[in-house]
## 1
Amino acid sequence: MTTTDGFPSRVLHPSDPIPDIDLADPDPARAGALDQVFTDLRPTHPVFWHRAKSRPGFWAVIGYAATMQVYRDSGTFSARHGMTIDSLRPDQDPASGMMVEVTDPPEHRRLRRSVGAFFADGVVTDLTPVVDAYVRRLLVEVRERGGTVDFVEAVAAKVPTHAAGLLLGLPLEDLDWITARTAQVFLSGSGTRGDLREAAEQANGELLSYFAKQLRKRGAGDDSLVRRLAAGTANREALSTGEAVLNALNLAIGGTTTTRSVLTNLMEALLRFPETFQALRDEPSAVPSAVEEAVRWANPVRHLARVATRDTELAGMDIRAGDPVLVWPRSANRDESVFAEPHRFDIHRRPNAHIGFAAGPHSCPGTGLARVQLRAVLGHMLDLFSAAEPAGPGELMQSNFLHGYTRLPVRFTPAS
Ligand code: HEM
């Protein structure tokens, strides 16, 4: 039996423990309360059936151990049907087999070698001083301007696009245009400007055309990533034009939207716990562990989608072939069986086995570049300012995929 959305009927599955709560609701006002919902459910329902509400029904995986199992067992939990609940489909994503994010092993390994090798070849080490200098410049400008700034517009939106632009070899004058598009690709639901999903699809299409054009217009001798992906080297196979474009898009979107969200979440944590700002100024060596804690505490990725390839069992639940399975890493990263006092923002947390960068074959290849940016922003902020306080309410983005702010007014006190 199939439902209208094309996924198998769930009539045999256990009842939904949260019939009145929609985890896939993109409304930030309601999404804010989900951390409590997860906390209440985790001990008894690490995996449960979430019946169709605003989106088709799915298995919700909210416990740490079960999330790890889904991430690691890509043979059973396939990524090729789409990455989010809004793009998930019963057949495979049209980009599957070409774009790393929606391709399963063994084909995934070929694409991953091409994409991942750019991070392994010392690229991040070379980019570190350039990113660091750019971040310093931005924050010095913020200090010189004085008064109140929107941290998102002044810092968080700019740094990841700049870093991704350097990685991909994109023209600097295009970066504002790219920032505006990448800010839209994971919006969902309806907003004041109409259907956000339509706007998101349009932004995605525009970015895809942009990368296709970049590849076409570049000539011999050009060393950009898009070009290198298409050309290949002695160690890695050349990608087809379509594959190069799709994976450049994957890198640009994957690299900017997540890092931007973490930067805003980190800032929000510092505003919420001002004693942390002072503690970090007194102990700058804690910056790297504070950055990891920001990724854990306010995980930017709300959910990631998979589809079961075969009947299986997960935390005692019978999952059937064809079932949509969604992991909620924000919840896994607050699992009390793994993290002591999981709701505390603890800049010294050790060990911190968070899964903000995922695990298994699809684990984030951009982790190193993300850390460089996050550490640079936090480090220079602590050096240039002695305090930061909220200068108005922040606005969370409307998305069931990402948790991050679209506006975060801050008043910094310059350090003497
Ligand atoms: C704090 C920032 C970041 C976070 C939290 C993050 C998180 C993630 C997560 C959770 C995944 C796994 C997706 C899945 O399992 O379906 C992923 C994959 C990916 N990320 Fe990141 N990411 C960050 C930064 C970056 C950066 C800076 C880049 C590149 C410039 C990047 C590029 C990618 C790519 C290409 C994938 C797909 C890998 C694959 O499917 O094999 N990410 N990221």
## 2
Amino acid sequence: MTQKGITVAPAEGKLGVLLVGLGAVSTTLVAGVLASKKGLAKPIGSLTQMGTIRLGKRTEHKSPFIKEFVPLAKMEDLVFGAWDVFPDNAYEAAIKAGVIEKPMLDALKEELSALKPWPAAFDKNFVCKLDGTHVKKAATKWDLAGQLMEDIERFKDQNKISRLNMIWCASTEAYLQSKPSHMSLEALEKGLKANDPNIPPSMIYAYAALKLGIPFSNGAPNLTVDTPALLELADKMNVPLSGKDFKTGQTLMKTIIAPGLRARLLGIAGWFSTNILGNRDGEVLDAPENFKTKEESKLSVLDTILQPELQPELYGKLYHKVRINYYPPRGDDKESWDNIDIFGWMGYPMQLKVNFLCRDSILAAPLVLDLVLLMDLAHRAGMKGIQEWLSFFYKSPMVAEGLYPEHNLFIQQTKLKNTLRHMMGEDPITHIGLEYYE
Ligand SMILES: NC(=O)c1ccc[n+]([C@@H]2O[C@H](COP(=O)([O-])OP(=O)(O)OC[C@H]3O[C@@H](n4cnc5c(N)ncnc54)[C@H](O)[C@@H]3O)[C@@H](O)[C@H]2O)c1
């Protein structure tokens, strides 16, 4: 398809979705897609399935569905493959995750049971709370990457797949800062062959995907593709990347509320956020080194929204605290509390309390679907490297070196929609609107 903007290859054939991790988020995604296809449920929360996009002037009243405006793969064309450190098929894993009610899972049992994970590339040093048994054995990390590539090629052939997309929906790995083996492709490949302990499984999966020219998205806050080595590989292979950490739950609310307070120039003295959750994600995050990865991601969002360097009187002394407490009885039904101490005219204090009873995986699943479809679109449009326009979906958006990430959900949304307009040769919408009064 040739447009005024960018040439986008059509979405022909099947799209293979490679899920790393077949836990709560992944099984909720797969069940939701199957249920939508059968007309048993609606894909609520998915921008690609339910979102619309305004084109042209407001007087034109032209707002097609996004899925009709850009050439996206259809849900019918998706084929799922997955890896996990436990051998449970998607039906068994979904029952254990406890997100979707059993009658619905039973209605999808045949298809869910057919999705059996391949053994994982796993390293307990990065997720100390899991004792996975369904894992690959190899002499080196280089060989592990080779085994992952074999899984992918086999899956592609068996299912007659035209295009692939990989997304990390596995546990959050222990905190890791950039190391020498992450600094160039050559160093990473050397490290893989030498079993460098600083190369976590997520980098091995990402390496395997990019090496095969497959777009990679990162739903967890792990470093993974946010490294010079893997950025170099993506550039070399002309593949898009996106990350990190799905923006759901409490952080989603934070990036909705904070821009409003900032827009009205209301000061914030403190923002205390606490959560209870009892799923496997909560258990993994109960380990301090895994929580640290998440904490960095959660803490970073307020800074670039509030810009304390520009408004030191309003936000310069803000005390921001985030806690996650593992509390098994709550399962996937996370509860979060936020106490926000704000101040207004003449410094008078006020308080805002937010108590969000959410469902983590119900909020995350549509993001996975959107990311897979939009990353596939980006790939067909010849876009490579970091896809900043997909920041809308992430807590810690990846950006080019030297840029600060944009966390404001509404700016992220404008960026995403204008990118779609640009791709399809439509004018961006600036919201100036003076022409209506000329
Ligand atoms: N649910 C949300 O709202 C949300 C939001 C942001 C980020 N995330 C992140 O998404 C990820 C998935 O969340 P979840 O609730 O599904 O967690 P989960 O614990 O239910 O599922 C993760 C799965 O990954 C598997 N796994 C761990 N290491 C693996 C490896 N090396 N290879 C293959 N599989 C591996 C685990 O066995 C588990 O089944 C987590 O990292 C979480 O922090 C979730």
